[in-house]
């Protein structure tokens, strides 16, 4: 049956679809940490969709939960209760660490951040937002409006007035040589300076604990706790965008904010991506007094849809029962070590960094877009991505304006043998860049 499918799919490159890659492969099915394309080739999936396949492809518990719920009722809208939504909300509220937490489900990370920004601006009666340089928070007008990296935005217009802070990127610029403590002090001074100029009339700080699209860059542990002390003095809220960092992906912590736990939990937390294992679930967790700013008739038509909620519950059960956070810590730690060893002495590689199964390889070379003449780091990243794909490995890229960071974020059930397999393919792919550079 597959042969017929492959023949049908191969010829068509759909001009009528807005696509990310010019020559994307067509995925037909997956299992565990592997996916297959329409020509029958198997790939080890080191990007998990886009961090969306959190546990594993075709996880039987999730498939069965979706089928069972689909057989009962597909959708009712949040006008009514459905049991999976009630249960998932309770689980997420408890896990969030936010006291007296309330959950509002959306269908994406963008919509979750939009909702959090709406809540924060309504609660604080201010449209000024603090955000981080090099950040990414989604595609809508307001999410783009707080995104630091303009490469992701077709427009700089936004209903929000956003002030950007230092703190996430240290591999370049004046901060590169500072220790963690010096860097943290410099970033806090930057925040104080900014607030000195605009006063305390700011609704919230929105930040990713580890920047995702920005190239898997993490601030020193405790930076947001240090920020929080300043924010608290002004009553400014902290929104932790956990769209990429939630559910144990960073290994040491269930949420990214916990690396900054001295300041306690954030006021609002947004999530999406992995919780549905590919089904569209996003959401906001907020303290009750903040969530009460949603007007009584606030509704997301498809947010909390029972089929997605059933998938989320089954997926979360599997994640917790199999301690996939612990697996991310162990296997991720091994993979980082293996990649560091594999790239030692490779001048094409500037840095291998990461936490758990969120690993970035930043490539060296001049800044600038790929394909613009003289070879840039972004050209090297594009070449490695292609070579890895040829070798049977899917990875992502991102980072900075032009994308010079390879991003590795497999399903959290990755085995040691699969980590070894992927590292070997990646080493060979990186070596092709070394050869062309010397
Ligand atoms: N926030 C972060 C940190 C993200 O990485 C993304 C997507 O990559 C978003 C928000 C937007 O999520 P979505 O694509 O589900 O709208």
TrEMBL record:
Enzyme Commission identifier(s): 2.6.1.44
Pfam families per the UniProt record, alphabetical: Aminotran_3
Keywords, alphabetical: Aminotransferase, Pyridoxal phosphate, Transferase
Required cofactor(s): pyridoxal 5'-phosphate
Entry-linked CDD domains: OAT_like
GO molecular-function terms, A-Z: transaminase activity
InterPro entries per UniProt: Aminotrans_3, PyrdxlP-dep_Trfase, PyrdxlP-dep_Trfase_major, PyrdxlP-dep_Trfase_small
Subunit composition and interactions: Homotetramer.
PANTHER family the UniProt entry points to: ALANINE--GLYOXYLATE AMINOTRANSFERASE 2, MITOCHONDRIAL, PTHR45688
Similarity remark: Belongs to the class-III pyridoxal-phosphate-dependent aminotransferase family.
Protein name in UniProt: alanine--glyoxylate transaminase
